[in-house]
Target: Tetratricopeptide repeat protein
Amino acid sequence: MPDYLFRATDASGNVVEDRLEAATLGQARYMLELRGFSAIEFYSPENVDDIQRASLSGTGIDPALPGDGTAGIEIAAHQRKGVAAQLLWALGQHAFIFGPLLLWNWLSWRGDRPFGWGDWLGFVATPLYAVVFGLMVLPLTIFTIMLEAAVWSDWPKQRRCIRLARLLRTVMRTGIPENELLFREANARAAEGDLAGALAHVAPLRGHPDLAEYLYLGRLSSVYEYAGDFTGQLRCVEEAVALNPDGTDGWIDLAAVRIRQFRDVAGARAALERIADREFPEMVRAVYLLTQGAVAVEAAEPAAAEKALVESQQLLAKFGLALIQAFEAELQAYLALARAAQGRGAESRADYARVRPMLLAGKRHTLVARADAALAAA
Model:
């Protein structure tokens, strides 16, 4: 982990200049605040001529705007990651294949001997692998960037990904389905305050042969969520469950909405009990346990909450999807609440500080405020 140089005033009024090891600038600042430091200044050691101050702000622990304090700095840093740079990174992960192929082609082209079958094989293999990369790797990479952009509420980047995905599908005749792209566009419009436009954007998908009504309603609930219309979100999920009562995901979604948006312990538990005896794939079980842990937190059962959340965390660690970041962030906030209620908030401070900017980017301000207060009092 990187070291962050800082100057700060401790609880006794002494000025301290030191370095702190942390995963991110946001985590470094939050760790110092929890230790009682104030007037915190961070410096960047990258400027060898003159140590340049990178961040100077007050002592509050809820700077939520980009460019203002630690959470904003980290949010802005994620939003500065360009799509092209991330695609080049993905290409670099395949350099161990492209590199030898291109070297093979170059040696064949520069050689004085006549072309042999091996030379022709190299010239055929290179474009073939480029096609494989375009068909299999690029769509997945674009989708991953799109998910990450949504997690950080970076809607311009998501729109660039959508344009690129459509271009790729036009050229390669494969890729991310149009239905998915339309819902992603609707989520962005809803998050930016245009709920009516977002709903109209996906209305033509209702009745689509590839999209059952309960699936449509499930996706529509996310549009309402991004708009902050949690009553509309709940209504969509309830209708989806009524149409597909034998499903599993719908009941988890229903429990999650009831507990996250309304802190309805009885309603959330009733939904989870409908599927309590089922066998789940690991990913689904992780989300089930996360929801179960959140319910236990709201029911003032911190030990049971911690048990469910830790098990969920272990399962989520097996997956690398960008979507897992959002689940992990929410999990750490609830885990901080559970441990703080047991007098062990210190165990969660570092992990919670790591995900706090992501929660703020996702407008989970109420959850952040509760976790902040619980850890401050622990």
Residues 3-60 form one domain. Confidence is low (pLDDT under 50) at residues 44-75. The chain has 17 helices and four strands.
